[in-house]
Amino acid sequence: VEDREALRDEHLAMRAERRVAREAGREARLEGRIAFMRTRLGITDAQAPLWGAFAESLRNNRLERVAARPGPRDPDAGRPPLVERLERQQEMLAARANQLNATIETLTPLYQSFDDEQRRTADRVFRRVGNNGFAMRGQRGERNRSWRGGARREFRRDRSRGPRGSGQGFE
User: Fold this and answer.
1) What is the pTM of this model?
2) b/e string for 138-160 if b means 16 or more Cβ within 10 A?
3) How far is residue 100's CA from residue 97's CA, in Å, rounded to a whole number?
4) Whose CA is closest to 70, among 103, 95, 101, 100?
5) pLDDT, tens digit, for every residue of 100-113?
6) 33, 82, 135, 143: which has the fewest C-beta neighbours closer than 10 Å?
7) Is 131 strand, coil or helix?
8) Tens digits of per-residue pLDDT, 55-80?
C-alpha cells in the first residue's frame, strides 16, 4: 500500500512539473504572437499606448483562463455528475464572454486608429478568433483545413503503394 501511495505521489508530482512547463510554453507563444502582430501591423509610436492596452488584455485573458482551470482531480473520484459539468461549462462560457468584452474594448480604439493598409493586414492576419484569443493565419483552423484537402489525398495515394513504398499495396 505504501509503494502504491508513493507511486501515486510521484506521478502527481510529475504531472505538476509537466503542467508548469506547458504553461511556460504557452506564455512564450503568446508573447511571440504579440510581438509578431505588432511587427506585422507596423504599430506606430502614436498607436503604442493603444497597442499596449490591447496586448495587456490578451495577457490578462490568458492569466484568467489559467486561474479558472480546475486543479488536478482525484483519480479515485470518478467523473463529476452531469449537472456539475454543465454548471462548470456555463461558468467557463461566462468568463470567456467577459474576456471577449475586454478584448473588444481595447481592440476597438486600436483598430479605429489603423490606416487602410493596417486594417487590411489585421483582417488578413487575424482571420479567426480562437478559444484562446486570436489565432493567426496558419494556426489551428488553417492548418487543419489543409490536412482535410490535399494532404489527405496524398496520404491515400501513398497508402496504395504499401508499407514503406514497397509497391505491394495493402490488400
Assistant:
1) 0.62
2) eeeeeeeeeeeeeeeeeeeeeee
3) 5
4) 95
5) 999 999 999 999 99
6) 82
7) coil
8) 999 999 888 888 877 766 676 777 88
